[in-house]
Every structure is written in C-alpha cells, then in structure tokens.
C-alpha cells in the first residue's frame, strides 16, 4: 500500500493562499529556473528543485483534494493535474452535474472514504493529499505518513493555513530531506507515530 503524503507550497508563515484563494508569490519558484518540470513549457525550476520534485511527481498515483480546491480550479478542466491518474474529491455535496463520465474523478463523503478509495486506486503508488482543511483533517485523524512542504520566501500575514484548522499538537520527525532551490526550500518530514 502506498504512503499518504500531505504536500503543498507554503509561505514561511504557514499559509498556502490568501483568504481570497490567491497564492500570490508562493508559486514563484515554479517559474524561477531554466529546467522544464513538465511538458507544458510553463513550469521551469532550478536543477535542485527538478531533482527533488520530478521523481516525487512520478510516484503519485492519486491526489485527494477538497471540494473547494476542485471548484476553484474548475476541476482542472477535467484533466487530473501534473499527469496524475486519479483525483479523489472530498465533498458533502456529491458529484457535480456533468462529471459522471469522467472516470478519473471520484467524489466521496468523508476523509476515511477518501483514503480508502485513493489507496484502492493508487496501489503501491503515493496518495498525495492537498494541504489545507482536508489535509489537516487527515493529519488529525492519523492518516498521513509524510508531510512535504515547498517553503517560499514570502510572508502572507493571513490566509488559508497549510494545516487547515488543526488545533492539536502533532509531532513530526526531523526533516529527512532539505533541498534549496531557486525561491524555495523543499522539506520532507515523516509523521511520528
């Protein structure tokens, strides 16, 4: 069974976006280098970031996201992001109209159902969880194995928190990966059990 990894770019003060969902300069690192990260030609990062991020992206089989992320991305225009095979959307509102035929998108009610479905689809590949409210709920429930952060050198001051509304202490191991790229510091922590 693949590991469950919470991942996102984040400001140094712990926000993944402003209150209006604008990430501002948090993603600047994705266009601050000269090494193409994907086939789009848009994302270009430093060699250090590429060497860290690309192998991880290639491991991801499924992404879990909340309905809010699904809605603000307009469902990634019907194509799972970054070449991922499936997206599991946590929602209490069910599948939106017109999404019945899109077999790569799965709509479930609750975080446990999301992890079960994602693990079924991912097999031994990574299940990635978008940081924010859903990611924080999964961490609080003990369902996250690893936390990855792409820390951007910006202070947002307020906004959407990386760990959502988590209000209890959770211990992580010391970072086992620390990679400096252009405009980013990549960190990886295992969740202490």
Automatic annotation (TrEMBL):
Signal peptide: none
Pfam family, one: RibD_C
Annotated Bacterial bifunctional deaminase-reductase C-terminal domain residues: 4-183
GO biological process terms, semicolon-separated: riboflavin biosynthetic process
InterPro entries in alphabetical order: DHFR-like_dom_sf, RibDG_C, Riboflavin_Biosynth_HTPR
Residues spanning the membrane: none
A Gene Ontology molecular function term of the record: 5-amino-6-(5-phosphoribosylamino)uracil reductase activity
Record's protein name: Dihydrofolate reductase
Species of provenance: Nocardioides thalensis
